[in-house]
Design brief:
about 325 residues, alpha+beta, six-stranded antiparallel barrel
């Protein structure tokens, strides 16, 4: 056999198709396209919701031993805490009696002032109790997952509070759970009102150590340490008057026209177990407006009915 007739093509095992670099570029382009599409058009939201629903029983099963261990520890420490709480309650009983009398006087005076100035009463919104399951795994955000979802009436954007003040806002809702973005998250922002000076501002999260910042405040603004900041209610999301944070420090520098204000949230964001999810403020305002319109229509139709009734008498 001559050398010119030899088959020099490689065996099928050594044949190669698309190069590895081309495959890498195609996969990278596809990944970038999917990330942009999910961020813009929320393409992965149904899949994320289905995955959260499918993993919910597994999450609860994995949390069961932890809950059992915590309940056992609470039971063993319960007697000691109860005795300490009883002693503390006895010491505070006299102080609370005096404070109660002062609170009753202030409440009566507040009611008289509201009636005198024709101010509307404090806004009451429906609430739903929830328990924090776990903290989100993203190390660059401050979010927690609660055990209430759309089936229980949780809506997107609902405020979340505890007994101390505002914790955050619902940013993702699933069927049996929801994700809450805390005030210390870098993307969190909330309008606030200084209770002492009645000055409005905007508080932002993302500061070091789980703190917040009051941005865009003039260097000569009337700000003092320990000033209490509450929700202003101007955003239509948070009811007014809820405690948000206290001013920890105010730094006024001459090279800039803005002051650097550091805030400390009043609610302990790192040790939260039970929370309250408030109802949407927009729907409550809508219902209030409808009720006022109905009462006004009833009041307007009352003279007509009385005149008709008096005209029909013999």
């Amino acid at each position: 056999m001559s050398l010119g007739t030899l088959d020099r093509t490689p065996p099928p095992f050594f044949r190669q198709g698309t190069t590895a670099l081309t495959k890498l570029l195609l996969c990278a382009a596809l990944a970038i396209f999917l990330m942009v599409a999910d961020a813009r058009f929320k393409l992965a939201a149904p899949a994320r919701a289905a995955l959260a629903l499918a993993l919910h029983p597994l999450q609860r099963a994995l949390l069961a031993p932890v809950d059992a261990w915590e309940r056992a520890g609470d039971y063993l420490r319960g007697t000691e805490r109860a005795m300490a709480a009883e002693d503390l309650a006895r010491r505070q009983l006299v102080q609370q009696a005096e404070r109660l009398s002062r609170a009753e006087q202030l409440q009566q005076e507040n009611q008289r002032l509201r009636a005198l100035l024709d101010l509307r009463p404090a806004l009451q919104v429906p609430s739903l109790a929830a328990e924090v399951l776990y903290e989100a795994s993203d190390p660059y955000s401050r979010r927690v997952v609660i055990d209430r979802g759309s089936r229980q009436g949780v809506t997107l954007g609902a405020p979340v509070i505890n007994d101390a003040g505002v914790l955050g806002q619902v940013t993702r809702v699933y069927l049996l759970s929801a994700e809450v973005t805390l005030l210390s998250d870098k993307d969190a922002a909330i309008p606030v009102l200084n209770t002492r000076s009645q000055q409005r501002g905007a508080a932002f999260g993302g500061a070091e150590g789980g703190a917040m910042e009051l941005r865009f405040m003039a260097a000569n603004a009337d700000l003092r340490q320990n000033d209490l900041l509450t929700t202003s209610g101007l955003d239509g999301v948070y009811p007014p008057g809820l405690p948000v944070a206290r001013i920890a420090s105010v730094e006024r520098r001459g090279d800039t026209s803005f002051a650097r204000v550091r805030l400390q949230p009043v609610a302990q964001l790192d040790d939260v177990r039970h929370v309250l999810v408030l109802g949407p403020l927009q729907e409550l305002e809508k219902m209030r407006a409808q009720a006022q319109a109905a009462s006004a229509a009833a009041a307007a139709s009352a003279p007509a009915r009385s005149a008709k009734a008096s005209g029909g008498k013999p």
